[in-house]
Specification:
heterodimer, A: alpha+beta, MetI-like fold, five-stranded antiparallel sheet, three-stranded antiparallel sheet, elongated, B: mainly alpha, 2 domains, two-stranded antiparallel sheet, 14 helices, 2 strands, about 0% strand
């Protein structure tokens, strides 16, 4: 990539300004996705109570606990009730406590110091949330006694959210469904379009120009124009809500761009190569298979990326032509459902969303060159 | 797993069938239209011309069939269906169109679409151009561009979740976990449920599309800027032109063609915008747009295909000028070929 280095600009105030402005844009553009990624990796309780930009800070929560009920154990002449208010694997630690049956307020007591209550019981709370309630006489309480505490939790990052959505929210299955839709829907139009693009480039037939202008016109026809008649048609012949149905639909919708892109490329191959092969007695079919197809790999890759991203990210076609059953729902459709049903459960939404965008991002970053080339030849010719 | 196997089988079968078709039809052509050869090996009648006039059609037949079945024929059907009632059986003339003019939701959608059409292409193109110019002046420009470009790979639904999280609202007193409200509160403001604030909420949706499309604009602008002759700018600089003057008086006129291409491409994307509205608000709080309304009518109350078709036709009518412009441009380029 050629960079226009302007030496004068480098030292000037303007240069400094333009650099800061560029950094500002980059940060602004990256923050949304970065926030999603960070959030999806956070402990779900922490995610609920502090912004992701505070992810490295310890969070503080106010909670209440209840002592266990049941028969007290007798130990060395003492009656003991034992339990915990913070789960064992949790990294939360109690700072102060009080209130409820203990009296006082939230910040009255600190852990590790036994507390003798008016009733004669002794309450001993450890920072990790485990406690002992002891008495010299049998307990007279029949239900759990309530108290309050302030706990802190060091920042915690985890893959739990991902594990949870992959199974519990069936995002794993949706991922497989999306792959099932995407791969055939990418390959089929390439196969069909490359033959057509060759014919449009190197074969003479009446109506060639007219038909190609139709293709150019179809490039911009909104999908919405096809949905209703196709849905009716699909219902009539019984392929509504089937994978072959959506494969063909995506193939049809992607075809104009495929033909257009590939023709731009194949039509730009040097005439001499094709003509010399023809003189050597090769038929068009042989020229296409042995010569043109191998030479067109970059263009095929460009379109493949386009179509892959388009199909993977599509919501509309999937909603219309595929069901919402677990074995059919695609990632985008599943996300749409989650937005409705899990609107406040950000640990679910963020991790699910990241699963759905991870593959496109990977494809994008590894094959950016082809993607850009495709964009350029798809819009401004010869770029 | 079984399903992926099914997909794999489908690929093999599908591609296999296509190859079989192409090989088979070509092979058949060679036999049916074979040259008549005399016993001494002399070609009596050459059918080369016949073969070469049929072969192109064998090459384009699958594409033509698919284009006809999936785009051309349905488009015509949709226009026709827009003159029929919801069941598609009774011709009702322009009734669907008349209904639309009086329908509040439809008018809201039209109004919103117009605002989208003004705001999104303009802002995306302008930002794309500015970032392209800025990035071309620094060594790490390619990396910077990569980051701006990245949202292009993200689905509209994924982007909707990303931005819904930014707009998240917690009641006053609670800590805000949405960055926008956190920012507002840190400046001493009141947190808002941004997506329900009528009129303003449309802009919060539009920003998502701007975020996605700016990268596209930037890539095209960047390529176009590379075509601006270095000497022209150098000469202007020597003549004492400021960088801003160079930008407005040399760069912009030189890349005007590309600006138009980018602008129209994004315009078409905007006309079809569906996922963002569907996922963010589903058209509530006066954020309806045509594409979402169309989808709505396809299924609302068992589906009214007449109204749905009418709305689709409306979107199509808006696209037609750009379609004509596209074809003109294509013909001009072909003339230069």
């Amino acid at each position: 990539m050629m960079n226009r280095q302007i030496p004068i600009l480098k030292l000037s105030l303007g240069g400094l300004l333009s650099r800061s402005l560029l950094i500002f844009f980059v940060v602004l553009w990256t923050i949304p996705t970065f926030g999603l990624l960070v959030s999806s990796l956070r402990d779900k309780d922490q995610l609920r109570i502090s912004g992701w930009w505070m992810a490295l800070q310890t969070t503080t929560v106010q909670e209440q606990g209840r002592t266990v009920t049941g028969v007290a154990e007798e130990r060395d002449g003492l009656y003991v009730l034992e339990g915990r208010v913070i789960e064992e694997e949790d990294t939360k630690r109690i700072d102060t406590y009080g209130g409820g049956f203990l009296g006082g307020t939230l910040d009255s007591y600190v852990p590790d110091q036994p507390l003798v209550l008016e009733s004669g019981y002794t309450f001993e709370l450890n920072p990790d949330g485990s406690y002992l309630l002891t008495s010299t006489e049998p307990f007279e309480i029949t239900r759990g006694e309530r108290f309050f505490y302030v706990a802190t939790k060091p920042p915690r990052f985890t893959l739990e959210n991902y594990e949870r959505v992959l199974d519990g929210e069936r995002i794993g299955q949706a991922f497989i469904n999306t792959v099932t839709v995407t791969v055939p829907a990418t390959i089929i139009p390439i196969a069909i379009a490359s033959f057509a693009a060759y014919a449009f480039s190197w074969m003479e037939f009446p109506g060639r120009r007219f038909l190609f202008i139709i293709v150019v016109a179809l490039l911009v026809v909104p999908l919405q124009m096809s949905l209703i008649p196709l849905l009716r048609f699909y219902n009539d012949i019984g392929i509504a809500r089937t994978y072959p149905g959506i494969w063909l639909a995506h193939a049809g919708f992607g075809l104009p761009l495929a033909i257009y892109l590939l023709r731009n490329y194949i039509g730009g191959l040097p005439r001499e190569i094709i003509e010399s092969a023809k003189i050597d007695g090769a038929s068009h079919f042989q020229v296409f298979m042995r010569l043109v197809l191998p030479l067109s790999v970059p263009a095929l890759a460009s379109f493949a990326i386009f179509q892959f991203l388009w199909v993977w990210n599509d919501l509309l076609v999937a909603l219309v032509f595929l069901g919402k059953r677990p074995d059919q729902i695609v990632l985008t459709s599943a996300l749409r459902e989650l937005i409705g049903s899990r609107a406040e459960d950000w640990e679910i939404l963020t991790s699910s969303a990241f699963i759905s965008i991870a593959v496109p991002l990977l494809v994008f970053f590894s094959l950016q060159r082809y993607f850009v080339r495709g964009l350029l030849s798809g819009s401004v010719k010869g770029g | 797993m079984e399903q992926l196997l099914g997909a794999l089988v489908a690929i093999v079968l599908g591609v296999g069938a296509l190859l079989l078709y192409f090989f088979g039809s070509n092979w058949l052509l060679e036999i049916v239209a074979a040259d008549s050869v005399a016993p001494d090996g002399q070609i009596k009648i050459s059918r080369d011309r016949l073969r070469e006039s049929i072969r192109p059609w064998l090459f384009i037949a699958p594409a033509l069939i698919l284009l006809t079945v999936y785009l051309v024929y349905p488009a015509i059907q949709t226009v026709i269906a827009s003159f029929y009632d919801g069941s598609g059986r009774n011709f009702i003339g322009f009734s669907n169109y008349e209904w639309a003019l009086g329908d509040r939701e439809f008018r809201t959608a039209i109004g919103n679409n117009l605002v989208w059409l003004l705001f999104v292409p303009t802002l995306s193109t302008a930002l794309g151009l500015i970032i392209a110019v800025l990035a071309d002046t620094v060594r790490w420009g390619a990396i910077a561009k990569s980051f701006i470009f990245m949202p292009m790979a993200i689905s509209f639904v994924g982007a909707s979740i990303i931005w819904k999280f930014i707009y998240d609202f917690r009641p006053i007193g609670q800590e805000q976990i949405g960055i926008l409200n956190a920012f507002v509160v840190s400046l001493g403001g009141q947190p808002q449920t941004w997506l329900t604030v009528t009129t303003l909420n449309n802009f919060f949706l539009m920003i998502i599309l701007v975020w996605i499309q700016t990268g596209f604009a930037m890539v095209l602008m960047s390529a176009a800027l590379r075509g601006v002759p270095e000497e022209t700018m150098e000469a202007a600089r020597i003549d004492g032109a400021s960088e801003l003057q160079i930008f407005f008086q040399i760069m912009i006129p030189q890349v005007m063609g590309t600006i138009l291409v980018v602008w129209t491409t994004i315009t078409i994307t905007v006309l079809k915008v569906f996922d963002i509205v569907q996922a963010m608000t589903n058209g509530q709080w006066d954020t309806q747009v045509l594409a979402n309304l169309m989808y709505d009518w396809m299924f609302r109350g068992g589906g009214d295909f007449g109204r749905g078709s009418m709305i689709a036709t409306f979107i199509m009518i808006a696209v037609v000028p750009m379609m004509i412009w596209n074809i003109r441009r294509f013909q001009q380029e072909e003339a230069l070929r």
